[in-house]
Amino acid sequence: MPEIDATDARLLLALTQDPRASVMALSQRLGLARNTVQTRLVRLEGNGVLAPLDQRVRPEALGYRLGAYMSVQVAQRGLAEVSEALAAVPEVLEVTGLSGATDLLVHVVATDADHLWRITETVLAIPGIQRVDTALAMRRFVERRVAPLLERAAGERPD
């Protein structure tokens, strides 16, 4: 992942504040040429700095009101295959490899408790998975955010 400079950070921060801003509006707001803004946006998208748009959609709006985190222990040689199989489960939002006793942290969503049970059975049926512990997400206190880091990178927030 390429690092971004202060100008990129200012551009991304402006986009977080107004995601629908046009290139022209961004260029005026930041005091940059329109072509500079356009070129930087294309580069940021191409380099994977900007996450896909579907990550902004809340699962709750699609009827998936129950969230959970599964701590998964995997037979070590099967990590790649297990990760691939988990990616094929639509309710799996994210899979993160961890150090320690738990190998993977799997964020899932479900419509209700019965649906979560079926998802758990699906996950347990994946070859290579040895154990799954599930914890319900009760409340989110801090939403996923990057704005404070962008503010720091743009020089708008002290270290």
Unreliable parts: none
Question: In the CATH hierarchy, what is the architecture of the largest domain at level 2?
Answer: 2-Layer Sandwich
Whole-Å distance between the termini? 22 Å
Give the spatial strand order of the biggest sheet.
2-3-1-4
Mean pLDDT: 93
Rounded to an integer in angstroms, the radius of gyration calculated over CA atoms is 20 Å
Label the structural class: alpha+beta
How would you describe the overall organization of this protein?
- One of its GO terms (biological process) is response to amino acid.
- With 159 residues, this protein is an alpha+beta fold.
- It has six helices and four strands.
- Strands 2-3-1-4 form a four-stranded antiparallel beta sheet, with helices on one face.
- The radius of gyration is 20 Å and the shape is elongated.
Key terms:
6 helices, 159 residues, 4 strands, 38% helix, 2 domains, alpha+beta, Alpha-Beta Plaits, Arc Repressor Mutant, subunit A, 4-stranded antiparallel beta sheet, elongated
